[in-house]
Amino acid sequence: MTPMPATAAVRVRRAELSDLDDLVALELASFASDRLSRAQYRRHLDSDSALVLVASANHRRFLGTAVVFFRKGSKVARLYSIATHAEARGKGVGSALLQAAESHARRRGCKELRLEVRTDNAAAISIYERFGYHRIAELPSYYEDGADGWRYAKPLRTHREKA
Ligand SMILES: CC(C)(COP(=O)(O)OP(=O)(O)OC[C@H]1O[C@@H](n2cnc3c(N)ncnc32)[C@H](O)[C@@H]1OP(=O)(O)O)[C@@H](O)C(=O)NCCC(=O)NCCS
Q: How far, in Å, is the centroid of ligand 1 from the Cα of 94?
């Protein structure tokens, strides 16, 4: 991959069927366990209770992804997954995806976004805390490989509530 300029403007869009190969490849490259399969991604692309986002910049159409789940009757949305291609990390792709996930959840009337993270995932924890997520639970042996997790949450205020 050619290096991405630090100044490239990151855009976030909804994933399409044509993104499936990229989604599955990034999932494999980013996570050693608890992965979403191709069939699961395919279902999520068509589902009202899931939102799959893709980040791009300039001529690079796939730099990262985020998956958000919604539940009928619940005002709590769940950020299930977020990942940036290793070559494009540290340039704002994850932040743009997180911001987009929050605004989609807000627009759907959600009041809170929750997520789980491995306790040793310093890069992810730093971005979540910078965005205002706070730790609400310890999740011992939460992951398939036995690793511990933390649950984080952030209240999603509307622009009117923020003013
Ligand atoms: C977490 C992740 C999505 C962040 O994506 P990104 O595109 O690099 O995000 P950004 O560029 O917007 O921000 C990265 C921030 O993490 C910080 N960071 C990067 N590596 C870090 C590390 N090892 N320790 C602490 N902070 C780190 C950067 O300094 C940056 O913060 P800054 O903007 O204040 O400088 C990316 O690291 C990733 O894909 N990781 C693998 C998949 C993963 O673990 N996902 C989360 C599962 S819960």
A: 7
